[in-house]
Please model this.
Amino acid sequence: MNKTRYILLNCAVTCVISILGLQLFRLQVVEQKDHSEIAHGNALRNIRVLPARGSIYDRNGVLLVHNVPEYTITLTPKFFNEERIPLLAKHLGVADSIINQSLEEARKYNPYRPSSSFSNVSFEQYSRIIEDSHLLPGVGTEIKQQRHYPTNARSSHALGYVGEINKQELNEISSESDSALYRQGDILGRTGIERGYEPWLRGVPGMARKWVNVYGLEVMAYAQGQADQKPREYYDIHLSLDSQIQEFAESLFVNKRGAVVALDPNNGEIIALVSKPDYPLEIFNGAIEDENWQSLISHSEQPLYNRATMNLMPPGSTWKPFMALLGLSEGLLGKEGGNTTIFCPGYHPIGRGRFFRCLASHGEMNVVEAIQSSCNTFFFELARRMDISSFKKYANLFGFGIEAPIDIGEQTPGLIPDSAYFGRIRSYEVEAAKMNLGVGQGDMGVTPLQLARYASALANGGVLHPPHLVKYLVNPETNEQIVIPDLPEPVKLEIDSTYMNLVRKGMRLVMEEGTGVMAQIPDIPSAGKTGTAQAPGNFEDHSVFIMFAPFDSPKIAIAVQCENTGDGSQCAAPIASLLAEKFLKGEIPPSWRTSVRMDRALSTKSQTLALTDQ
Model:
């Protein structure tokens, strides 16, 4: 080897060693921090720890909703060995194609992050997968939570149900803070209290750091768990709902369509909220089977539909106390007011040789007597005299035709006709249409919630409270108690107390001597008004009733709608009366009056089948 070649070889070796040295210096010194983080990222796994979803209690501390374990299998596609698909499919009792499909969905979501792919697996399946975890890289296990309902009171539409978050909802969560709260496979509230109070019930997930091996299997806690973040800030909810009254009300609605809303007239607390037919909330635990879902949404009786807050029908004669207040307040009865009489010959002419019938020929009647006897002629005449803009104003004042400030989302504002509506009616029909409104018929619609709120205002002398289900929330770790501040202040209606007392007197006479006499609670004076709402087509009329009790110091106000069951005294009135008695007395003592009310409450002319065992 000549000298030149020797020098060149030494230079080449020196260059290579220098380059390698510089590279080692860059990796070990200059970029040490970056590569250390990458190495830790490959060896450390951040695992979300979900807080327990808050429990829900009734007004007496009875547990309505809590959690039981739900076993979940996760897939992390990056670490999964596809040769193990048959073994995983065998343990889960599914076809290989289902595993492939789940892997693809998880890969689209995030190939490096565990996805909740199989929820609500049995404990036996869960145990087998843990036992063979060394053979199933990329397969993880989680113990989540499933809602459990320990009482016989379903309260389906009040409590609401939960369900897995879907792709569209995940895509809509754009802010960084929210995206940390939800991932694929998580549950969230869909309806009722579960939806309305989702942030309070759910809380904030925590984080546990774990060392993992090259197969993605967890080895031990990082730093002995000192770097973990505990989940926090979930709340238990205490409702105003009385589970015993709720259960009793539901039992009275077997094989019926309709709804009940019972309120505390002193503060707007909802004591019972029933919509029938309903559905068992348990079917929404985990992924609801398509057969069950299709059965729910296609069922002719619409069990998912919240009749208590959304069902519109004419109020019938329960509207007459409202018309009396309108007439008295607007001077439609002249200077004498409550002493002014209107003659009832048993009908009221409406022009062109036609007339509306009354229930009887009552003769001269003042406003109290007209409410007691439910005289149609009296209220036809009041409606004939009224201005339609006043009708709309007073209806809105009592909460009709507008949404109530309630803490559950599902409701309908109702339908109250205005001058624009009457402008579309042929001129010779306007007076007849107005008169029909006077007895709660025609093109108008109210919900049971609105009727209960109206009954509460009559009970308490003219205060409209915001109806609500939640009394307060409690943090179970700190015992911190929160009263939800979002509801508006009660509204004092600008109604003369003299007029209100006249109407209340008429409603008391309804129960003592009128159409509600068989619904009177033994030993507890009450006030009420029956109603019959005309049903379109060749169907039985709807039964409607409002009441409050005790008369002098009301503690409960109730509205009941029974679809296609006849007049108000046949179904709605006895149901309301029995519920009020049970709430006020704690029981319903046996008597002949109880037997009559129970028979009327349980009987029905409607050929409906409640979805009680779906």
Notes: The mean pLDDT is 87. The first helix runs from residue 3 to 30. The first strand starts at residue 44 and ends at 49.
